[in-house]
Amino acid sequence: MAHILVIDDDEDLRDLLSQYLMLENHEVTTASDGLAGIQLVKSEKFDLIITDIIMPNKDGIEFILDLLDDPDVENTPIIAMSGGKRKISSEFNLVSASTLGVKAILKKPFTSHELYKSVKSALT
Length: 124
What we know:
By secondary structure, the chain is of the alpha/beta class. The protein is built from 5 helices and 5 strands; from the N terminus they run βαβαβαβαβα. The protein is globular and about 30 Å long.
């Protein structure tokens, strides 16, 4: 199926998302923050990227902005997810990501059904 990059600083969530996506026969690569995600994007081709917004080192908005500046990956579909653990709400984080052209947004916590629906939509 698709090669998907999952970026989130929560290891348990990364593992859970990977398992769900692999059950759907996707190949999954993970990164713990946007900085590691950028390094992977420079070395591998992905069909879809799922990124958290609030992360250390390079957050999801900075990551998305970096992708938009790279002609090799600027058209790769992105799903943004956020739980809004800081002072800014998850809604604000996700609206910010939406203005940058992400294909879908997921407010944490979300169900496996919501994940599958968003992935299917982003890949078509």
